[in-house]
Amino acid sequence: MNKIIMLFLFTITSMFCNTIFSQNNISGEVKDRQGNPLEGANIILTPTGNSATTNSDGVFKIDNISSGNYVINISYLGYKTIEKTVEITNKNITLSFVLEDDLLNLQTVVVTGTFDPRIQLESSTSVSILNSKSIQQNYPQGTASLLQNIPGTFTDASAGEVYTKVYTRGISASAEDDTGWYYVSLQEDGLPVSLVQHSYYSPDLFHRVDLTTQKVEALRGGSASITALNAPGGVYNFISHGVRNKFGGDIQLTTGMQGEENYIYKIDANIGGPLGNNWFFNAGGHYRHDDGARDTDFPFSKGGQLKFNVIKKNARGYLKFYGKVLNDKTNRYTGVAAVNWNNPTPAFGQDFESTSLLMPSFNASIPDGRNLNKKNAFNPSQGVYAKDFSLGFDFFQNIGNNWSLKNNMKFSVKDANWQTSISNAFVSLNNPLAYFISGASFPIGQIVFRDAQSGSELARLNNAGILAGQPIEYLGEGTLPNDAIMGTSAWYKDNKADEYMHQFILQKELENHDISTGFDFGFSNTSLFTQGSFAFVTYEPNPRMLHVTLENPGAPVIELSDSNGISNYGGLFFVNSRAKVTQASTFINDRWKVSDDVHIDLGIRYETIKHKGSKDRFAPFTQGGGLDGNNNTAYDNGILSPTGEKDNFNYNYNYLSFSGGVNYKFDDDGALFARFSQGNKAPELNYYFNNFSNVPINKKGEVQKINQAEIGIKYNLKNFSFTSTMFWSQLKDIGIANFEFDSSDNSIFYTPIQFNTSRTIGLEWESIYSPIQNFIFRFNGIIQDPKATKWKVYDAAGSVDTSDDSILDYSGNVLPFNPKLMFNLSNEYEKDKVSAFIKWQFMGKRDGNVSNGFKLPAYSIFNAGAGYQISKHLSADILVTNLFNSEGLANFFGANSFGANANGATPDFIAANPDASFVVFPVLRRRALLKLNYSF
């Protein structure tokens, strides 16, 4: 018995001692080359998966490590990753690490465009990173404006924060002004901002940039075909702040001036820290009041957002809850008139710097075409009122035996209400359209224009001769500016969407293979209502609303507009549609380790998209006297309303996408990569909403096919880093339809769709050079040759009548809106408490249409800034954009006439109309900001 007891005690004691002596601790510190501690550096121990992050003193500690050999990985955004083998033989080990600058973030782990996070240098994709410092060097104009800094990315932010365009590598044909993100996915923390797009409903409506964004990862083409929902052109992923080990954050106050004494005021904040027991939080957002870069009589933008996340860490992964509340009003600028096709200059007293041509603020009530007993409030000062409430859940866990899973899901409720103007074309008073567009049956005789605000008479004229081609005759001293009114619409849109999206990834690590499989799922229940009423507005740089009447002697006064200047209530546009969109895909990807230096990446994705919905048919309300039964109020005589008939659609789009890449790491700092991808782009909802007006939706849209090939090099030296990628991209089955206006019956329609093909070859590069410790030079850009290899345009000859229609062939022309050269060149200086930078953005010539009839000139924009660290916590920065007030032209809308489009400005048209005016979109003028930032 004694022997048994002694044996038991010896066993228990041995187990206890082994437990004590086998558990060890690793501690250490992480600093930069100047000896400054790095807070928030990530420490990972392999193969256990134990991790830690450094505190404000750059110190970390990992407890309870068994004796043995391990690989310790130290990474920090903006610095080169270190991997070191350590042997654990005693209880406590203390290590010290010095991280070198990773000038181009090639040693930074990226999560976008890949199923298994890896450092850029080992990736076979073209990914760029904007860190928080780069983000803060940009004026807070919006998402597209920030993405101008990504090499190879074309952006047009001339209209403001929304109504923007973003695309890469010539994959651009359907990225129209009203669906400018057609081929790319705008994401927040790995999931799309919105699942659907249609006219004037793009993801930029629901996205704002502020201090809650830690970095942006941008993937151009390539693996986007197999890693994103219906977005083969690229992914722009805005990643929020994560775990912060010590309570702290930033509060930033911004004020500045732009244009002609227009001001901006903004407050940003982001705070975070531990909550105890491995729980952490981040919360922040912004509020801003912005008068805008151009002149309007109301604030251009006001509102903001709140974002948060709560993270629970464990030894094998994390659990994160996150959310966003966006409540924001902004607007978008329309074009400016110009003359001289070869060297555009402003016309009609307008200028490229301050003219906006937006209607002034007023309060009107316009009958709702869906329910004629209801009215919609309309005030152009509201602009685009966007609301987004979203909640998400992100989960990652190593589940043992080299298996791991990641599950990310989000639910959102979106609402975008537009109360603004569309078009600002010149309409001569000698043009019958100026009167008949009111909806009146015969508005001929004495026309009186009064200022809608003051009621004073501005002009009285006799238009009796216009039907015989005779000019109008002013009666009295008053005249209207430029003898014209503006061809514009009081445009009301109401868009809603309830969305759910979900991504699940299951991974297995084998000896030479990392296999990832899973699914993406998204569902959107969306609705669209659009109604357009004509608005009588003066054609001048600061437009005024006009109350217009027909006052023939001896006859009753006919009101051509209401007292606010609104005419032809709901008679220009009517679209009332709803749709349910279901997107689902499954994928599998294998990263095969051929050798220590060579990895092959192969993936396929099967995707199915279902569009099910309906669109109301409509007709003018024809009751005598119009909606109010009064024959003398002509402005409500032609409102469009549903007939009760609906055109249904229910179509499925199924396709298989493929992407394969290879990465050869020829040394620790350099790698070659190549990739070929075959992707697909299913139609967006605008295909149904725009192209079928009072006719059956009897066929589904065409799936566009995208083929891309690329080969590149990435190299990371001590003072110089660069990436360079040669690419070839082809876009097939591009459906093109033009927006047209028939002046004979005042109707608006889209032309029959033509299917076309484009091809672009080019070279992208991104480089950074630090000749001495405090100076950095950055240079990135693209040289490309974009071609419309097969391209036809339907010419409706300005009328619904098809007897005079033709099809124009522009095959072989230069693909429009794609510059052959575009680059960013900057110099940054930082030493002690002082920092400064200057940046040159160059945009090359672009053809304004596929006929190559008009070219947008090249332009340069210079931005500059300087900062000073006032104290440990307080810093100040001055930022100036468009330093020299460049008058560059970003976009072209064709001839300056109601219903015109860019494709109408053919070489023949320009030759026949050398003195005609046309509509362009100038870049935004100089803006200066002062930022005060308090860090704690």
Q: What distinguishing features does this structure have?
A:
mainly beta, Immunoglobulin-like, Maltoporin, Chain A, 5-stranded mixed sheet, 7 helices, 57 strands, disordered N terminus, signal, transport, tonb box
Short description:
This protein is mainly β and 936 residues long. The chain has seven helices and 57 strands.
Write the layout of secondary structure elements.
Elements: H1 2-22, E1 24-32, E2 42-46, E3 51-53, E4 59-65, E5 68-76, E6 79-88, E7 92-99, E8 109-110, E9 118-119, E10 127-131, H2 132-136, H3 143-147, E11 153-156, E12 165-168, E13 184-188, E14 191-192, E15 213-220, H4 224-227, E16 234-240, E17 248-258, E18 262-276, E19 279-290, E20 301-314, E21 317-330, E22 336-339, E23 345-346, E24 364-368, E25 371-378, E26 383-400, E27 403-428, H5 433-436, E28 446-451, E29 457-462, E30 473-474, E31 484-509, E32 513-535, E33 546-550, E34 558-559, E35 566-567, E36 573-593, E37 598-620, E38 640-667, E39 670-681, H6 686-691, E40 704-716, E41 720-736, E42 739-742, E43 747-750, E44 754-769, E45 775-790, E46 792-795, E47 806-809, E48 813-814, E49 821-831, E50 834-843, E51 846-847, E52 855-856, E53 859-869, E54 874-881, E55 889-895, H7 907-912, E56 918-922, E57 927-935
Parallel strand pairs: 1-7, 13-16
Antiparallel strand pairs: 1-4, 2-3, 2-5, 5-6, 8-9, 10-15, 11-12, 13-14, 15-16, 17-18, 17-57, 18-19, 19-20, 20-21, 21-26, 22-23, 22-56, 24-25, 26-27, 27-31, 28-29, 28-33, 29-30, 31-32, 32-35, 32-36, 33-34, 36-37, 37-38, 38-39, 39-40, 40-41, 41-44, 42-43, 44-45, 45-48, 45-49, 46-47, 49-50, 50-53, ...
Family: Belongs to the TonB-dependent receptor family.
Protein name: TonB-dependent receptor
Main location: membrane
